[in-house]
Structure formats: structure tokens, C-alpha cells
Amino acid sequence: MKHMQAKINFNAGPAALPPEVLHEAAKAVNKYKKTGFSILELPHRGPEFAEILEESKHLVKKLCKLDDNYEVLWLHGGGRQQFFMIPMNFLSQDGAAGYIDSGHWAEEAYQYATSYGNAQVLASSKKVNYTSLPEWPAKIPAKLAYLHLTTNNTIYGTQWGQTPDVKVPLIADMSSDIFSRKHDYSKYSMFYAAAQKNLGIAGLALAVIRKDMLKRSVRELPPMLSYAAQVKEGSILNTANVFGIYVSLLMLRWIDAKGIDSIEKENKAKAKLVYDTIDSSSIFTPYVKEKAHRSMMNVCFTAKTPEVEKRLLELCEENDIAGIKGHRSAGGFRVSLYNAISMEWVEQLVALMKAVS
Ligand code: PMP
Question: Measured between alpha carbons, how far is 86 from 82 in angstroms, rounded to an integer?
């Protein structure tokens, strides 16, 4: 199915959604199945939404190859709410948690945790402006409540490959690379993702938690902020984000129909095309030099002169390509290549990159 919208969208998030998903979502906004009204009016405690929730949870576990030892939650508040829910739930005032500081979001997650207990940065690549991943810590303290990792660094375009085994509970922010590749999700005691990149629309987060973590709550919390209470109420402790969860279900169906293997293959090919174009050009410089650290999801690069930068932005504007300006803290360009981005779109961008001279 072709996109009906006029512009090619390489934004980092909210990001492009597949045309099939947009089409189904628009249909549901008009009228949801046989209800006679819009999905926007659908009660969160009715049978239709119960089906949506059930199927979404089933698909998350299926795509992650996880068993019933894991709970799937849909939570309000996007990615940042997880930054504080995690330490609130698991880091006691006299406890310690480890953070791998691989970028802006990883650092912000750490900063939020410092209010609740002894949060420690165990490795950081801040000194090199996050142009590479930090070296994995030689030693991870045995008594950590958890170790927090950001699998893909959206702003700088670095991404961890398969994660090393650790003996403490591993918690990952997968906001910008969930379901983008084959991955061993069973290594994590918990992982989460803001939905607005590979998984739907903003304001919503997916959190997947191994059941043993629910017994590790360290303090009394308002139920809305407690994973155990949210699990007990099956993600409908309060009025759920019905439409957001429905769009995520459509994304999960789309991902499942394509299959993670073929999604990974496409994502690799799209990223290779852009990186090859940058590497073979004399006017663009990759933000991340170390190839093994490069992200398949966000390709960041700079232009050698302000004229080149201006020219590529102009060409994109003239050709209805949006969203390639880099984040203000990295500068230059950032091309986000989430699952919904087609190879055809990438080829159109690359043709413009080659046309700049
Ligand atoms: N984590 C990562 C890796 C992100 O890229 C982002 C946002 N781009 C966030 C967390 C924050 O998400 P939100 O804006 O939904 O709070």
C-alpha cells in the first residue's frame, strides 16, 4: 500500500507509520468494527478493548519469544515516565543501580534515578560526545538493584549489538529499536519503549517485566506508579489510552505479518545504503566512525561545509522530504530508518545526497 500523505517522513519520533496502519487507524476513527461508533469513543472496560489488549499482549510475547514468565504493560507517560518509575519501584534509598551512559536519553534516565538511591554511571562515552558506545564495564557490582542500558541512542546514532550477559537484573530502554531486529529479549528482567517510533503514537509506553521483578518493589507508591499494581489491574488501572494501544496493536500485527527476520534484513539494507553513501562521499562525515557501533535506526552525519548542509536541506524541501535535520545536541543530519521507512524512500534521499555538489 502507498502512503497517501504528500511528504516522505524521516523524523525521529513521532515517526512515520506504515500506510496500512494509518489506513486501518483512520477507518477505526470513523467507526470501530460493529460498535457503531469511533474507536475514540470506545470504553476501556468493554469487551472490544479487552480483545485489543489481549491480542496486543499476545503479539508482544510472540515477537519477543517470551513465555508467561513475563508481564506486558501499556503505560501512560511515554519513555520518560519509565525513567522515574524504574528507580521508584526498584531502587531503595540505601540501594545502588548501575547505568550505562551511551547518550542523552541514557544520561537522563540516570539523572532521574539519582533522586531515589545511589545511581552510578558504570561506563560513559560523554567525553567523546557519544560518537561511540562506551566500553562495557569490566566489572559490574554484584549487589546492584539493576543495570540500565539504552539499546539504541536516538540522538547520536549508536546501537548495542547483542547485549552481554550480566548477573544483575538488566533493564533496557528500547524506545528506538524495539522489534527492529532479532534480539534475545529473555536476557532482560525488564525492557520498555516509548511507542512513537517503531510501535505507534506518542504518550504511551510498552513495558515488559519478568514476574520476579514485581516482588522487588522497594517502597509504597501510588498505584499508578507501581508496576505490581498496574499488572494487577491489567493495564487498565485508570482509563487506558485506547486509541494509542489500538495503533500499537496495528503495528504489532504489521510487524508480525512481515516477520522480524525480514524486517531486520530490510533495516540492514536501508542503513547500509545511507552509510555507504556517507562513507564514499567527500562532502559528508559520519557522526559514528566505528562501524560496529553504528545504529541501523538513526543514521547521523554532518556536512563538511555550511553550504553543503544548506543545499541538502533545500533539496529535501523541494522534493518533499522531511525530518532529516539532526538533533540540536548533535547537529548536522539525522535520518531515522524505523521499520515503516521503505527502501524506496531511502533511495530517494540517497539520490539527493549524491546530487549535492
Ligand atoms: N528514550 C529514548 C531512547 C528516546 O529516543 C526517547 C525520545 N526520543 C525517550 C526515551 C523519551 O521518550 P518520551 O519523549 O516519550 O518521554
Answer: 6
State which ligand 1 atom lies nearest to the alpha carbon of 150: 3
- Measured in Å, residue 195 CA sits from the centre of ligand 1 at 9
DSSP state of 66: -
Domains of the chain: 23-257 (3.40.640.10), 260-355 (3.90.1150.10)
C-beta 79 within 6 A of ligand 1: yes
- Rounded Cα–Cα distance for residues 95 and 248 (Å): 35
Omega into 14 within 30° of 0, i.e. cis? yes
Report how far residue 175's alpha carbon sits from residue 105's, in angstroms, rounded to the nearest whole number.
10
Q: How far is the CA of 31 from the centre of ligand 1 (A)?
A: 31
Q: What is the per-residue pLDDT across 44-94, written as a single tens digit (0 to 9) for each?
A: 999 999 999 999 999 999 999 999 999 999 999 999 999 999 999 999 999
Query: Is the model's pTM score more than 0.90?
Result: yes
